[in-house]
Write a structure and sequence with these properties.
By secondary structure, the chain is α/β, with parallel strands linked by helices. It contains 4 helices and 8 strands, in the order E-H-E-H-E-E-H-E-E-E-H-E. The protein has one domain. Helix 3 crosses helix 4. The radius of gyration is 14 Å and the shape is globular. The model has no long low-confidence stretch (mean pLDDT 97). It comes from Clostridium ganghwense.
Length: 147
């Protein structure tokens, strides 16, 4: 059983109200091999919502900020924790998450400047899942999996 980003399964839960539908992920969900989740929605954030990126503050702390300067760190941490709780309940060992996202990005995320540039890094949910023994992949890694 996989945990997958709901937006990849065609759920309109992205910050802009859309999705990132991926045919293979949709098939996994339809076949009962994957459970879709959206950490941001689990935390109570609305859809659509402010576009956010991870920044490092003056003290070196990771924060989730909107382009307008609103701090959403608390909500993103809550969403990550609820996602981990669901993963533990259903015994998930692998997750396929949306690349570049401040929640789900794994290995590569937006750089925090809202310029469309990327940097090496991990979204809050992806990092928490990985730290708790769940193998994390993105939709770009499907060739590494035996689906």
């Amino acid at each position: 059983m996989y945990l997958v980003s709901a937006c990849l399964a065609g759920v309109n839960c992205r910050y802009n109200g859309g999705n990132s539908k991926h045919k293979t992920i949709c098939e996994l969900v339809k076949e009962g091999k994957a459970i879709p989740i959206c950490p941001e929605q689990l935390s109570g954030l609305p859809t659509p919502r402010a576009c956010c990126e991870i920044i490092i503050d003056e003290s070196g702390n990771k924060k989730i900020m909107s382009e307008g300067g609103q701090d959403f760190t608390k909500e993103f941490i809550e969403g990550a924790e609820k996602t981990l709780e669901i993963a533990r309940i259903i015994g998930v060992e692998e997750a396929i998450l949306q690349s570049r996202s401040p929640s789900c990005g794994y290995g590569c995320i937006y750089d925090g400047t809202f310029s469309g540039n990327f940097k090496e890094g991990y979204g809050f949910t992806a990092e928490l899942l990985a730290k708790n023994g769940i193998e994390v992949y993105t939709e770009n890694d499907l060739d590494k999996l035996e689906l």
